[in-house]
């Protein structure tokens, strides 16, 4: 492996390869990850172009050295761990917008582009990429985990916004999955195969992204409910009405308490009701559209809700939504020194969401684990954040049990073990439970066809086949 | 091959296998196809369940006999031809709705379900599958060609409405790509791999479809323009405004003439302006929403348009849209005995649409081919229908030239050779031009991994590898 790193260094120069221990550690371990491997890569490589990646792949392929792609490091399921060591490819320097076609509503970028920066550029033309994962996330990682976030209810997930990808395959060959039409039915949908493949089929070096029109009018409402069930029932009535909200988020009473006590000053002073709450984002191209949507929604859910507050000004709107935005941050801020947060998600058919949330909360209580819940309720997807002391074996076991039970229930409800965080190392066994050995075997056959030496991000999504020859 | 058919007959009984010449002909030849192979299958098999398909696959796999899936026979690129003979699997009897979950907004169906029938059932719960290909089409074929139609501008294409598929692989193994969550980022997106694969990777025997809410309010406007360019420029302004129309269709002056002269009585009597026209469909959940959209659109495109007519009643709405609906039918009705229509499509980045339409129309004129154009302008996708006498070599050549030029231009504009009809046999060479040998090779590697004997609908999308052993 070091031989591979040295060969890359010879080609690109010293600056392009790092052997620094801290650097390697930062590229192989994350506090945010549900799992971390104990192994680390031997070096981190910083390519600047598709050609650079080709050279790295050729060397690693020749020497059978694992390649682990790295974007912003914000994934949570060990997606960028190095369980078989190898070489990390960090795409930090591949952060250019290559071409922007506002009239076609698309943009071609390198994988290291941060989505917040991208949207600042796109705003000039009133366009945006309508995903909202971690603000640090870069497009390559967003593609590779099929990310989403609060906007998915209206705009779908990453797979819906990728027109084509350019990929360096394991042996260094470069392919492009499509040209640039927004619509096509020509041949296999390779784009969708690479989206969500977590770098196990190749390194994505260019992405053409579709863009959406920034809505000219937006507003926010916060609605409180006596129970999770009544909130979910209200959400269901909104969904079935056909009114197209921009987002529909659920926070449970625990998360509302945390917001009241530990939110930013402007958020705290509102003194939120500590009951399950729906955060609704409205968007439209006209003021009348927004007003009509807010009135209709209010009428629709009057029966279940206890309070309906909506933003009358832009300032109001930002302040209301801030409570939702601060959810993760407040949870982190109350974490005692040495404690950890296990943050994970599942998705189920929407009619099942209230039940799985209630049951998961009860599990948390019974097991004595501090648990808060935030849900993308319009997608049947929710996040559970569990706080625990990883040095306490009883607490660690309790958290693992709680997560296992949540996932097992999601599967019993015909759901999925990962709504928007992919599989990484953390959910491999669960994925097997979700899809069964036949479907996993088919995935592995595809993997073998594309990467016969299994050097691309090995040990993610599924285990290596028995008897694989990979350097460790 | 006959041995395979006999073995299937022994298992299922005589009624399940047809050797009737007419039956085989109807399953191997289509007037609507741009190409037809001269070879025919040896038999047509009519399975009734996934298990039946498994048995057929096992026998055909053992004996290395090609399997060609058949839905409604409405595809146009030779997608269900039998260039290597084999056995046709007709899914006519697999036409059950297996389970309907209105609260989850999804439905599980067999591949032989017709989408119009399905939507009649779904209407009870104010839900629908928002695709509109040929009214005869069945879900299996719609999935396999990644179909779309006029609704795609708002609702996307078939790939966006499939939650999971159950597939019988070449060796008879059954896999299911997902459970039933609307959102997931768990493992490879096998669903999207099978959508649009034209039956070359396996036979789809069950499909879970997402459903949309039927909009409570709809309306239609027809807007005329002096040129295709001004129509496209108006369309572009609407798209960039963010106003979400249900459909945006373009008909050229030739198609408008045909409508005036050969449309149904109710359509003819309106006396349409014979200039490029946009047919706009509006939909909303409120009357105010529709009114506001119509007013905004009218304002936006006033500069380019010469006339703006919108429906004031439901009856009006149906009559206006009828002209768009009758487009294909009127073209067929004026076809002289013995003449044929070559109907094909491409898609380009939306800014290029007006130019490619204008150039394609000029090609048609220059080559003396009667050509009409209907465009899904919101998707950068258009259809050209060319009328000719297939027995006249000069006319046949002219049509082939016109199609070739249209496709070549689409590729030069970074478009695709097929917007919504897939590749079949008709566009194999063009797909190679679109994607290049490396990408096609990757598709073939995937094909080989899943179907090593290449028995699944061979000769579609791409050619067989050199030296393939397949019975002919």
Largest sheet of chain A: 7 strands, antiparallel
Number of strands of chain A: 18
Number of helices of chain A: 16
Report, as a whole number of angstroms, the end-to-end distance of chain A: 9 Å
For this entry, what is the oligomeric state of its chains?
A: homodimer
Based on CA atoms alone, the radius of gyration of chain A comes out at: 23 Å
- CATH class of the largest domain in chain A reads Alpha Beta
Q: Give the overall average pLDDT of chain A.
A: 95
Low-confidence stretches of chain A: none
Helix content of chain A: 25-40%
CATH topology of the largest domain in chain A: Uridine Diphospho-n-acetylenolpyruvylglucosamine Reductase, domain 3
Summarize this structure briefly:
The structure is a homodimer of 472-residue chains. With 472 residues, chain A is of the alpha+beta class.
Structure description:
The structure is a homodimer of 472-residue chains. Chain A has 472 residues and is α+β, with helices and mostly antiparallel strands. Chain A has four domains: 2-90, 2-Layer Sandwich (Uridine Diphospho-n-acetylenolpyruvylglucosamine Reductase, domain 2); 97-213, Uridine Diphospho-n-acetylenolpyruvylglucosamine Reductase, domain 3 (2-Layer Sandwich); 217-329, Alpha-Beta Plaits, CATH 3.30.70.2190; 335-412, Alpha-Beta Plaits. In chain A, 37% of the residues lie in helices and 19% in strands. Chain A contains 16 helices and 18 strands. Chain A has helices spanning 2-12, 21-26, 50-63, 115-122, 139-144, 152-155, 190-194, 228-241, 253-262, 265-268, 287-301, 314-325, 327-333, 353-367, 393-412, 428-450; strands spanning 17-18, 43-45, 67-70, 87-90, 97-101, 106-109, 127-128, 162-168, 174-176, 203-210, 212-213, 217-224, 247-251, 277-284, 307-310, 340-347, 370-376, 381-388. A seven-stranded antiparallel β-sheet of chain A has the order 15-12-14-13-17-18-16, with helices on both faces. In chain A, strands 5-6-10-8-9 form a five-stranded antiparallel β-sheet. In chain A, α8 (228-241) runs antiparallel to α14, α9 crosses α13 and α14 (353-367) packs antiparallel against α15. The longest helix of chain A is centred in the last third of the chain and has 23 residues, at 428-450. The first copy, chain A, is globular, with a radius of gyration of 23 Å. The model of chain A has no long low-confidence stretch (mean pLDDT 95). At the A-B interface, β9, α7, β11, α8 and α11 of A face β9, α7, β11, α8 and α11 of B.
């Amino acid at each position: 492996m070091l031989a591979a790193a040295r060969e890359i260094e010879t080609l690109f120069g010293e600056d392009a390869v790092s052997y620094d221990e801290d650097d390697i550690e930062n590229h192989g371990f994350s506090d945010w990850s549900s799992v971390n491997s104990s192994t680390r890569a031997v070096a981190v490589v910083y390519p600047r172009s598709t050609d650079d990646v080709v050279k790295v792949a050729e060397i690693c392929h020749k020497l059978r050295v694992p390649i682990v792609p790295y974007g912003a490091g914000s994934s949570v399921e060990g997606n960028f761990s190095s369980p078989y060591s190898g070489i990390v490819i960090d795409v930090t320097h591949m952060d250019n917008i290559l071409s922007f076609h506002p009239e076609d509503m698309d943009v071609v970028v390198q994988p290291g582009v941060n989505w917040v920066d991208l949207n600042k550029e796109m705003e000039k033309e009133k366009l945006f990429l309508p995903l909202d994962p971690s603000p640090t996330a870069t497009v390559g990682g967003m593609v590779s985990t099929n990310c989403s976030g609060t906007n998915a209810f209206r705009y779908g997930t990453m797979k819906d916004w990728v027109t084509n990808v350019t990929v360096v395959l394991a042996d260094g060959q470069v392919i492009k999955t499509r040209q640039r039409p927004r619509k096509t039915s020509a041949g296999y949908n390779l784009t969708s195969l690479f989206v969500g493949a977590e770098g196990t089929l190749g390194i994505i070096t260019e992405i053409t992204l579709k863009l959406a029109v920034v809505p000219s009018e937006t507003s926010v409402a916060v609605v409180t409910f006596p129970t999770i069930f009544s909130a979910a029932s209200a959400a269901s009535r909104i969904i079935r009405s056909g009114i197209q909200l921009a987002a529909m988020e659920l926070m449970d009473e625990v998360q509302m308490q945390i917001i009241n006590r530990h939110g930013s000053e402007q958020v705290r002073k509102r003194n939120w009701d500590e009951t399950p709450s729906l955060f609704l984002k409205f968007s439209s191209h006209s003021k009348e559209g927004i007003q009509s949507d807010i009135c209709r929604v209010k009428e629709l859910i009057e029966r279940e809700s206890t309070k309906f507050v909506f933003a009358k000004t832009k300032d109001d709107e930002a302040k209301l939504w801030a409570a939702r935005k601060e959810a993760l941050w407040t949870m982190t801020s109350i974490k005692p020194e040495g404690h950890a947060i296990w943050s994970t998600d599942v998705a189920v058919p929407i009619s099942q969401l209230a039940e799985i949330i209630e049951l998961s909360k009860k599990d948390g209580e019974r097991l004595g684990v501090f648990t808060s819940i935030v849900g993308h309720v319009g997608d049947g997807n929710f996040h559970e954040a569990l706080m625990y002391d990883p040095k306490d074996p009883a607490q660690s076991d309790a958290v693992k049990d709680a997560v296992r039970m949540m996932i097992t229930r999601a599967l019993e409800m015909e759901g999925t073990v990962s709504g928007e965080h992919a599989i990484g190392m953390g959910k491999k066994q669960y994925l097997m439970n979700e899809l069964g050995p036949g479907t996993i075997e088919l995935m592995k056959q595809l993997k073998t066809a594309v990467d016969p030496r299994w050097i691309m991000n090995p040990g993610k999504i599924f285990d290596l086949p028995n008897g694989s020859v990979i350097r460790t």
